Amino acid sequence: MSGITTFSTNFTPPPTDGSLTVMQMLDWHYVHNSSHPLFVYAPTSSGSESPPSKVAVTWGEVVEAVYTGAKLLKDRVPSIDALNAEGKPKVIGVLSHSDSISYYTTVLAIIRANCVPFPIYPKNSPQAVAHLIQKVGVTHVLLGYDQNMQHLMERAVEFLEEDFGYTKEKIPGTSMIPVFEDLYLSKARGASSEGQERVNKIREEIPLKALGPKDIQFYLHSSGSTALPKPLPWTSLGVYKLTTCTRFAGRSMTGKVFSIHVVPVFHAMGTFHIFSAISTGIVFGVFPPQIPPVQASPENVLEGARRVGAGYLLSVPSVIEAWSQNPSYVKWLAGRNGVFYSGGPLDIEVGTRLSEQGVPLSCTYGSTECGVMSEDPPREVYKDAWNYFRFSKGIKAQLIPNEDVDGSDAFEVIISGAPYHPGPQVVNTTIDGVDGYSTHDLIEEHPKYKGYWKILGRIDSKIIHSSGENTNPGPLESIMNQDPHVNACVMFGHGKFQAGIIVEPTMEEREPFIELESSGNVDEHEREAKLSEFRNKIWPTVEKMNAIAPQHSRIFKEMILIASPSKPFLFTAKRTTRNAAIIRGYTPEIEALYANLEESTQPSIPIPQQWDLQSSKAFVRAVVEKVLIKHQSESKNGTSASRAIKDDDDFFQIGGDSLQATWIKNSIMRALRDGAKIDTRGAAGNFVYEYPTIGTLGAFVASVVENKSLDIAVRQQGPDAQVEVEVQGMNRMVEKYSKDFRVNANLRIDSPTRKRRKVVLMTGSTGGVGAHILDRLLEDSTVEKVYALIRRGKGKSKDGAGSDDIKTKQKEAFVERGVDSGLVESSKLVLLEAQLSEERFGLEEDVFEKLKKEVTHVVANAWRVDFNLGLGSFESDIKGIRSMVDFALATDSLLVFTSSIGIFRRFNYAKERPFLEAPISAKVASAGGYSQSKWVSEQIIQSASSIAGLRSVIVRLGQACGSPNGSWNSKEWLPALVKSAPSLGCIVDDDREISWIPADLVARAFRDFLDAPETETRGNPSFVHLIHPRPARWSSLVRTIASKLNVDVVPFGTWLEKLEEAGKKDKSAEEKISALRILPSYQAMGLELEEAFGMALIRNERAKRLSKTLADPDVPQLGQEDLERWMAYWGL
């Protein structure tokens, strides 16, 4: 057949008589098959040169890479060759989205290092990852390079500590998974002399330890579709049989190219197939090795298979169904030797049509517990039996008749041990005294072709979706059955992309439907209204189901089918639902539901090629106009009363209804799924209700594509799920600005002159704290010069130093804070108009180069202060801090960054309190864009420190409480609270401590931090908490305020109620009650926490160690004089 590649069949298979272990078989290949390929891929284009059409990776290279990987792991993983506490080899977890070649090689390298690999599904929840780690005693985890994997592991560690009592000593170590370049050191094909020397040396350094037949060789795990996944051990004997059982395949596959582009290696289906190559000489087509790995799509999978000349393809049903829509794809597939699917049922119509069009289609049958159990590939493929399989001759399958499936000769499949097949690695039953594994699969024989079997379903009712994922309906149905309005329910979705549920109402809830049907004249509008009313009643219970279900198992509102009184549910004698019979009886309604879901989209509208804001809005506009105008004309009997829809028109205010909202949502989701490759199954609600205009919906769609996540459903799963979304956004921002740090090879660390003098580059000098920092620096005799970067106003130029505009701005800042305004003329001060997020800070090149030569310290103090903004609104500030980091790296300057104790917002996610001067979890800082942005910046600095050796101090600044002249911005929360007291007639009482710190004291501490030693700042940031070293009590101050203003002192809750009530009574109250302008800030203050006004109790030992100012035992506490200065400044 044309376009099919076949490599040499000159392959010498290893002995399969048990004389060699799997690892010894690799050594066999190194000697006998070093030039025979194991992988082939089509490289991506780089630069102007055309890449080769395909690249083969030979067994010689693979074996050398395995040994290289084993040595690399021995060097990276502490005591890797020591036995664990139980005297067994250590278990190494792999948590990564890596390319197939690197991942498989790493798994083999772990085995060659005499350890046990455990590939862990990277889409597991943190709780599931922790559960798996604990169950098998994982001692080390190899992590992928994407931020999500590292975050997932961090979260898993939290579960290990909280749920399983892990101490720091017991928590698994982590290191980055080896990449292709780490493993495949030689470019030459086959075994080079250099490679042979390396293999021989490592073989001596890491002797291969013998394993008994029952010793564990690797772990896989179950899907854990609703419960936690279960680790499944594969023994040494089982793995050996896995590599040799392919001798019973239907055809010889030596030298044949088998595309597994769509199959992840961490999945059992990928693992089993690649291990089979050890004794067959098969060549696997995969994506090129790269970081990040290629994300499979129907298009790039087929293109990858085509470019490597694959004669055989293994895929999942959903991808094949997508291919079936493209005639050119179908024509190419018809020219293959075999197209196999596994993981779930393929749509009957699609499969039949493809088979009739000449595609050699057939199914593969297997399980994580038993391996591949069908002929793989089959000897013969019949057009009218494409969805049937034949058992491998090497397997021992017992078929037990099952009479629970009406109208079918169904059999339950039970697998027991066999000489030439792995057999069950897990035992859950016995047959005639022999251990076996009940798969819970039900099959029936083909009426024409004996020995060919079709999968009907499962005894345990597990639903297998077309994506290859599965849903275990039992726990979900149990939740629904607890609803007081529900008599019973049955989930469905076998062979479909998503799940649905049939709900039978209680007798009381059925009455309206019975009356409606018995009238004989059903009003469809009335019927739909009653159905909608009932769905709304049970929706809170559906939300509970969705909260525990994996993404692919969540229920959409439109996938809820209400049982008809004329078709009551069928029950067994034990009053359990007869699911199969019920689903069969409701097949027409179920199919209609899926058809309506698919038809309620607008496939005729072109999907955007770009997903920027403008293109996204244009697409949304086209969808909305087509849906709303179409329905307007239909509802008015053909007389169109439609008008142009404006971008700010609310859909529901111009005649839209819930059905049209569904059409709009589904059209957008289809485009996101097919065009932007977004997994849309996480959306259980209808985002059109949240974004009911073209403008807002278009912006939302653009954001979804940018963030590669459709996270709508989390808003319906409670605060924890919302926090997860915030954290994902924070991690994406960290990842975006933590790439390509450059290490300065010409560091000036040892320069004596550099140690004596300080030239400081600072930002934020016109703010309250910044003005005092600048004042302190200019007064310091060890500071030679200060360059102050002041943000350029709109329309300003890039002219050099000392323009009147920025001088005036700095002078006004000094005057307001009571600082000598004449300092703006200091010879030590250079004011520069700048834009931090621009290249070179927006400065002229000669000015910037001068800074690079002179600056020794950087104080990054500028930041936007607005607690109502989201993280995205702070991106320019974050981009600016990355620029400051790059500058500090280029000049080896000490970077002092002003963070905030405001990052300690979600106390309930803290591992311990008081908060230490150390990094914190993203969850703690996830409440609000301001605190998120500070946390993101901390992470960027931390990455630069560990990767590139940045010297840094991160100053988490507490509440700065005014200047010596009493200056304290009256718009901030405490001034606003005090100024609102006369209007409310009361002020807040609290007997706890306050650690607010005056701005001039902050400045003196900042100056001290510039002298932080190398040992405290190089390689890891020095976190310090800048709060008052001698806290005072709020109660000692509030009595004076109450007496002066003649108001009552009341608990915080009472005060907040009065504030909220004042806002409700008078919409214009904000004009005189300034606290109303920042009401959400007060509502977020949790008085159950340790410090007054919901502030965190934090440690500050390092800050006092690095600052002689803070260490002074005679630092004055806040008192009456401070309070009187503040109130005078506020005009009270």
From TrEMBL:
Protein known as: Acetyl-CoA synthetase-like protein
PROSITE patterns with a match to the protein in the record: CARRIER (PS50075)
Pfam families per record: AMP-binding, AMP-binding_C_3, NAD_binding_4
UniProt keyword annotations, A-Z: Phosphopantetheine, Phosphoprotein
Species classification: Eukaryota, Fungi, Dikarya, Basidiomycota, Agaricomycotina
Keyword Lyase carried by entry: no
Protein species of origin: Dendrothele bispora (strain CBS 962.96)
Signal peptide (from-to): none
UniProt cross-references to InterPro entries, sorted A to Z: ACP-like_sf, Adenylate-forming_Reductase, AMP-dep_synth/lig_dom, ANL_N_sf, FAR_NAD-bd, NAD(P)-bd_dom_sf, PP-bd_ACP
Record domain Carrier: where: 614-705
